[in-house]
Structures are given as C-alpha cells and as structure tokens.
Amino acid sequence: MNITKKFAVVLFICASIFTGCSSDDDKNETEVVDTATLKTFKDVTFSLDYSEGFDAGRFFSTETGKSYKKSQIDTATLPKVDIAFYGGSSSLNFFVSPNDSEDGLGSTATNTDFINYVTNQYTIDQFNKLEKGEDLNSLTITDDGESFPDSNLPLVVLFKNAAGKKGVIYVKSVTRVGSNPRIVADIKIQK
User: Fold this and answer.
1) Are 82 and 63 in contact (CB under 8 A)?
2) What's the superkingdom here (predicted)?
3) What 8-state DSSP symbol labels residue 10?
4) DSSP code for 148
5) Closest to 172 (Cα-Cα) out of 158, 154, 189
C-alpha cells in the first residue's frame, strides 16, 4: 500500500505541473498578441509646476517609459524624450514638442507633433478599446499649437514622434492644490 500512495502522489504532482504549464503558455501567448504592436503606460504624471520643484517632471520618454525633470536630462537621455508638457494655468495646458525653444528642451531635442485640441478625430472610448498599434495608422497628426483647460478633462491628445510612431495621451485628472501639482495620464503608442 505504501507504494500505491507514493505513486498516487507522484501522479498528482505531475498532473498539477502539466496543467500549470499549459495554462501559463496560453496566458503568455495572449499577452504577446495584445502588446506586440502597442506600448501602454499607466498613470504617468506631468508637473504643473514649471520649476519642477515637486515630485513630477514635465518630460517623458516612450522609449524608456520614464518621466524626467529638466535637470535629469543629459546628452544620453535627450534623444529619447519625445513628450513635453506645459501647464501654465487652469485654462492653459498643452503638450509641446521637446525641441520647442520656449517650453521644451531646445533645438537639439527631438520633434513631436501634438493635436492638443481633439474634436472628433479620436475619443476616450476609442482609447480604452485600443489594443493594436495598426489602429492608429489612419490618423493624420500635424501640430495644432492649441491648448486645453482643466475644465475639459478628461480628454485625449494625439501625437506623432520623430520616429513616425503615433500615439494617444488620455489625460485623466488634474491636481492643482497641495504639494505636487500635476496631471495624470495614460499613454498608448505604436511599437
């Protein structure tokens, strides 16, 4: 009887391992399909403080997936930064190209075009359903030089970086009171 119990335990362990491996393979396959052509960044913060004296920075790299303060950007990081933000007041917010001489990092940075005032080109619902980078191919994105007020949030902003990759920024919320004034956004961009 002792051998029968041991055999049953070994058979149970083998079956558990086989079942566990099979379901992991299925999950990995689905994840690869979902993320093969689209990068997603959640809860990215952009500072509303021009001096960046608090926690959040005004710059973001979709290549590294990191936010930066101007003081953190060196010659190695500079070509990777493709999003800059300016929040002057509750009625004047906009994403700007990193190579903007006034609100960006200067002429040696990369160029990104933004449509800050999106009317019917793209919706929040479309952003939430976006799973494939190819779905952004048909968008025409040329810089509009516009801004948006806090009162219009939530909203979406369209962009195309220097590498020709198109993306959507979903600006979810704004916090202007207390320490660390910031906006919070989700970003999706073609791989």
Assistant:
1) yes
2) Bacteria
3) H
4) B
5) 154
Per-residue pLDDT tens digits for 21-79: 444 443 322 222 345 899 999 999 999 988 877 778 999 999 999 999 999 999 999 99
State which H helix or E strand residue 30 sits in: helix 2-35
3-state secondary structure of 171: strand
Structure tokens at 112: 């990104």
Q: Report the C-alpha gap between 28 and 9 in whole angstroms.
A: 29
Question: What do you get for the CA distance between the two ends of the chain, in Å?
Answer: 59
Q: What's the DSSP call for residue 133?
A: G
Q: Residue 84 pairs with which residues in a beta bridge? A: 59, 96
- Separation between Cα atoms, residue 186 and residue 130, nearest integer Å: 12
105: CB partners within 8 A, 6+ apart = 59, 70, 73, 78, 81, 84, 98, 99
Q: How many residues can be counted in the chain?
A: 191
DSSP state of 175: E
Convert the pLDDT of each residue in 116-163 to its tens digit: 999 989 999 999 999 999 999 999 999 999 999 999 999 999 999 999
Antiparallel, parallel or unpaired: β 113-115 and 92-96: unpaired
